[in-house]
Amino acid sequence: MKTLPQFSLQDQVVVVTGAGRGIGRTIALDAHRSGAKLAIGSRTKSELESLRAEIEADGGVCFCHELDVTQVDSIRSFFSAVVAHFGHIDVLINNAGYNRQAPLLDYSEELYDEIVDANLKSVFFCAQVVAKHMVSRQQGGVIINISSQAGVVGAPGRGPYSGAKAGVNNLTKTMAAEWAPHNIRVNVVAPTGTRSPLAEKAMMENPELAEAITTKNLLRKGLAEPEEISAPVIFLASPAASMITGHTLVVDGGWTII
């Protein structure tokens, strides 16, 4: 079965941060299957190399480079390397993030800063660097920020994370408004709990979260699969979403509607 043209990313240069594992890895693979050329970044080089080998073995094009999204110098070096390799960037998917669970009363300033830097500051500076490139190129582009349903509703045990993700949702609206004159679309995908070793560990550590995942997802009593999050990302990156910007697409099985 061929992909409908409006859903294709054929020959688009797509950057995925935090691509080494979990949702990011699945997004990168699905972007490749949609025809994109991939640039992938994370802190773990071995995971990047493994993903690049998988994409290249399937006939794709993939460039990998280490990236620490909490460090602005690393962000700038990463995107400079991507542009030097491909010449331009068409799509940025801000997927990298980090969390550690604790009651609000137990967070230290250091841990708070780690979480907010990884989930909000990172989105701001990655998007800023790429938007400057897109504005100067005058060919438009797409930015998709991966948030969380925790940024839409309360998230006991995940306070700084939920606050940072809520910030991403609102920051995205401002990005969309400011950059629309340059034909840059900016949207959010906000997933529910999604299957990964980290999610399963979080459920073990937080019985309240585990209970919520098994009772509040109306369509499924459990975790989403990574492919169920990746597919909406590919849609928003594609020409099929050409009239969508500033939107938060909550992919949560109905969790946040009741």
Structure description:
Helix 2 links the parallel strand 2 and strand 3. The protein contains eight helices and seven strands; from the N terminus they run E-H-E-H-E-H-E-H-E-H-E-H-H-H-E. A seven-stranded parallel sheet has the order 3-2-1-4-5-6-7, sandwiched between helices. The chain has 258 residues and is of the alpha/beta class. It has one domain: NAD(P)-binding Rossmann-like Domain (Rossmann fold, 3-Layer(aba) Sandwich), CATH 3.40.50.720. The N and C termini lie far apart (38 Å). Helix 1 packs across helix 8. It is 47% helix and 15% strand.
Q: Over the alpha carbons, how many angstroms does the gyration radius reach?
A: 17 Å
Largest sheet data: 7 strands, parallel
Strand order of the largest sheet: 3-2-1-4-5-6-7
Broad structural category: alpha/beta
Q: Would you identify the CATH H-level superfamily?
A: NAD(P)-binding Rossmann-like Domain
Query: What fold name goes in the CATH topology slot?
Result: Rossmann fold
Given the C-alpha coordinates, what overall shape results?
globular
* Strand-residue proportion: 5-15%
The secondary-structure element order is: EHEHEHEHEHEHHHE
CATH architecture designation: 3-Layer(aba) Sandwich
Termini separation comes to: 38 Å
Total helical segments? 8
Low-confidence stretches: none
